[in-house]
């Protein structure tokens, strides 16, 4: 117990030093959607540790574990379990996939639809393969419903704008469309057969000690 108290006091002292004196550096890897999640925490982190230089490197989610192991990143934010004993992961946020349509769309005033109602829709999808995209494709296939992915785009922002303009519909991470749903520039419609929860995880190497800057960030988001 005394040893634990000593370590805890040492950590508190290190974080106080980081806050007051140190010009540390923190490099975090994230993809497009998880970068949006980070924004809410980076502002607070900068308030607490103004001398720490924070760099968020946008990367494909599938590449982040290897970048961590290669030492190119200190922390990574991903939406799947890396299932690698060389990495530790901590769930820091729960999100879901939202089915969104334009306020002008024929389904905009429905609270709930079935997958069968979506067989004639034009879907706008992200052109990066993800576990959630695969689940959507598999679910439509199992229900024997056509999934018309007629448009693929490189960014979530572009998909969001196309859906707002009623050029198609999309499944998007809810945290990426919360503001639009609140402002009613997009409408969320529940699909009965689908409830896809996304666990956002902070990931870091098991055997490499975290810097004080990284430890402080981990404490902030935990």
UniProtKB/TrEMBL annotation:
Q: Which Pfam families match?
A: LysR_substrate
What residue stretches are annotated with the LysR substrate-binding domain? Answer: 21-221
Q: Which CDD domains match?
A: PBP2_LTTR_substrate
The GO biological-process annotations, alphabetized, read as: regulation of DNA-templated transcription
List where this protein forms a coiled coil.
none
One GO CC term on file: cytosol
Protein name per the record:
LysR family transcriptional regulator substrate-binding protein
Name the source organism: Candidatus Acidiferrum panamense
What is the taxonomic lineage of the source species? Bacteria, Pseudomonadati, Acidobacteriota, Terriglobia, Candidatus Acidiferrales
């Amino acid at each position: 117990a005394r040893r634990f108290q000593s370590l805890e006091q040492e950590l508190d002292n290190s974080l106080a030093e980081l806050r007051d004196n140190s010009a540390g550096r923190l490099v975090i890897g994230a993809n497009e959607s998880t970068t949006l999640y980070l924004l809410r925490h980076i502002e607070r982190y900068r308030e607490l540790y103004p001398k720490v230089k924070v760099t968020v490197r946008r990367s494909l989610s599938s590449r982040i574990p290897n970048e961590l192991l290669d030492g190119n990143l200190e922390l990574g934010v991903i939406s799947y379990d890396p299932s690698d004993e060389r990495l530790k992961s901590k769930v820091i946020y729960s999100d879901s996939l939202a089915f969104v349509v334009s306020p002008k769309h024929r389904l905009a005033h429905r609270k709930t639809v079935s997958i069968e109602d979506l067989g004639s829709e034009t879907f706008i999808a992200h052109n990066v393969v993800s576990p959630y995209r695969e689940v959507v494709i598999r679910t439509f296939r199992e229900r024997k419903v056509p999934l018309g992915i007629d448009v693929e785009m490189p960014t979530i922002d572009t998909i969001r704008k196309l859906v707002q303009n009623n050029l198609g519909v999309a499944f998007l991470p809810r945290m990426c469309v919360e503001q639009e749903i609140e402002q009613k520039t997009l409408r969320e419609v529940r699909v009965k057969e689908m409830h896809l929860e996304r666990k956002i995880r902070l990931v870091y190497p098991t055997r490499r000690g975290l810097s004080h800057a990284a430890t402080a960030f981990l404490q902030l988001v935990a």
